[in-house]
Design goal:
This protein has a single domain, classed as Rossmann fold, CATH 3.40.50.720. Helix content is 43%, strand content 17%. It is built from seven helices and seven strands. The chain has a seven-stranded parallel β-sheet with strand order 3-2-1-4-5-6-7, sandwiched between helices. Helix 1 (12-23) links the parallel strand 1 (3-6) and strand 2. Helix 4 packs parallel to helix 5. The longest helix is centred in the middle third of the chain and has 22 residues, at 106-127. It is globular. The termini are far apart. The mean pLDDT is 96.
């Protein structure tokens, strides 16, 4: 059984990824920070469709939780699926911030750093001992690393760092056959950064070749493919899933 850990799996792209992976026969361990009810709803939807999932609490910005989280994952793998190794990790959890460079506070900077770069670095390091031969890692980055958008500089900078980190993961984990790729969404209809109002959505759609903003499942299908057998020869790549944003 191929079991995947998906951080931030209670909503948005994370929730859609959990469902897409389950549809492909994968077991899912999804994490949530506060919203246990939403996480439970994702688990219920997966189980209603014949899949199997477990929700575990985790604050990705708090590295001190990672060792105990690894033990919870280890116990869950054995108790729920009867296996001892993970088939993959999706570093998805995060939050947005719209604030010009001149007014970003140190606390805001550190909050984005911890959840978007430091957290994925050390969570991957911590879970590496549980990853089986040929496991896959997918890091969620952003099209803002390619297209400069005023007001999101710290977020974009740390996503850019995660994109670089992905290639180093692919290089260093290769002897174990572990692949690492990043998926870079464009404008997606989620709650990140407060969501999209009609005016902003229309603007983003006008800047996208396919004429609309993306849905969480547009990104989730790509992530699930990268974790499946079909994605087994894709490694060290950054794949933008944006419908042709600012070509």
């Amino acid at each position: 059984m191929n079991v995947i850990v998906i951080t931030g799996g209670s909503r948005g792209i994370g929730a859609s990824t959990a469902e897409q992976c389950a549809r492909r026969g994968m077991g899912v361990i999804l994490t949530y920070k506060r919203d246990a009810d939403s996480a439970a709803s994702v688990v219920q939807r997966i189980e209603a469709s014949g899949g199997k999932a477990v929700a575990l609490e985790l604050d990705v910005a708090d590295v001190s939780q990672f060792d105990s989280f690894r033990e919870k994952v280890r116990q869950t793998l054995l108790a729920t699926w009867g296996v001892t190794t993970l088939g993959g990790l999706v570093n998805n959890a995060g939050h947005g911030l719209f604030n010009p460079l001149e007014s970003v506070t140190e606390a805001q900077f550190d909050g984005l750093l911890n959840v978007h770069l430091k957290g994925p670095f050390f969570l991957t390091q911590t879970l590496l001992s549980l990853m089986g031969e040929g496991a896959g890692i997918v890091n969620l980055t952003s099209a803002t690393t390619r297209v400069a958008t005023a007001g999101v500089a710290p977020y974009a900078a740390f996503k850019g760092g995660l994109d670089v980190l992905t290639r180093y993961m692919a290089k260093e984990f290769a002897p174990r056959g572990i692949r690492a790729n990043s998926v870079s969404p464009g404008a997606i209809r989620t709650e990140l950064g407060g969501g999209l109002n009609d005016e902003f959505e229309a603007l983003l759609a006008s800047q996208t070749a396919l004429g609309r903003v993306g849905e969480p499942q547009d990104v989730a299908r790509v992530i699930a493919t990268l974790l499946s057998e079909e994605g087994g020869w894709i490694n060290a790549q950054s794949i933008e899933v944006a419908g042709g944003y600012f070509i």
